[in-house]
User: What shape does this take?
Amino acid sequence: MNKNPIILGIESSCDETAASIITENEQGMPTILSNIVSSQVDVHKEFGGVVPELAARSHLEKIDLITKKAIDESGIRMEKIDAVAATAGPGLVVCLSVGLSFGKAMASSLNKPFIAINHLEGHALSPKLNSELKYPYLLLLISGGHTQFLCVHGLGNYKRLGTTIDDALGEAFDKTAKLLGIEFPGGPQIEVFAKKGDPNKYLLPKPIFYKGGCNLSFSGLKTAVLKISKHIKTDQDKYDLAASFQKTIEEILYKKSKIAFKEFKKINKTNKNKFIVAGGVAANKRIREVLTKLCKEENFETIFPPINLCGDNAAMIAMVGLEKFKLNQFSELDCAAKPRWPLDEDAVFLKGAGIKL
Ligand code: KG4
Ligand code: ZN
Assistant: This one.
């Protein structure tokens, strides 16, 4: 086997078309040689959310150019690539199919192994791109489609400790932003608005704050924001509502992470407790500050991916590819896209009315 494998990663699960080349240095640390992300924000803006068919068409139009750019920027000759890793799920099936088929075709034409990747595992391993990270660790995954606490025992080995029972956190940010008249995707802009507002102006609910262990819920919060947003008159009111929303989220994450820490300690008997926060919402600076403070209080080491690796990218997909490559975990070329693909396949599905917590 090549001493320093070179992996091409491809990502197209939602509205980012991305390709990346990574390798390892002599010390075994991953090195990003290129990381190209093309966002489709302009395609979906006027619809206020991702339109699957438009997203798929845009992936189709761009995937070969983005991949070529990633290969060119890496300075690596195409034949030197040792394996191709592409996201196979979860995500929008029409979007997944584009990157998956392209990745398989690349692997087949290069006569190199193909590796199907779980997008969530990409987020879970993304901190490995900039820090030496040993298993096990506690992961809070906060993205546009998922919100979960997981104990990461190793590659492909996850135990879910808690999950959202309704909306994902990124979804709650985006919906709140929409109600405040912010263009899609509004999550990052809420942070900007919040800085100018009074976080104590509106009292918002914190669903299942005192029950449900480290499970989370955000839909009641969204309803409360909807009601208040109808009475908003000035820009300052908008800033105040954004600040109140942001503060409520901070309080929920602080409390639920503290519970998750207890759960994690029951499983992890070593003294080294690590808390990783990944996914698009992990770019939120206030959330980073609050969770860093909690970690100091609870003697956990906290690790965040760099801001540019929090959102969807292909370097994290190549990272999982690299780990799988070293274990000879390859995929067949007829493997299918998986719109639903939980990291912990044994965890109970916890969504919808009537669930018992
Ligand atoms: O991980 P990601 O890029 O895509 C998914 O896999 O879903 O996450 C995107 C989500 C969006 O909902 C976006 O609004 C949110 O992450 N997001 C943020 C921030 N930056 C991105 N939410 C709050 N604050 C931010 N700074
Ligand atoms: Zn993602």
Notes: The chain has ten helices and ten strands. Strands lie at 7-11, 16-24, 30-39, 83-89, 114-118, 137-142, 147-154, 157-163, 274-278, 301-303.
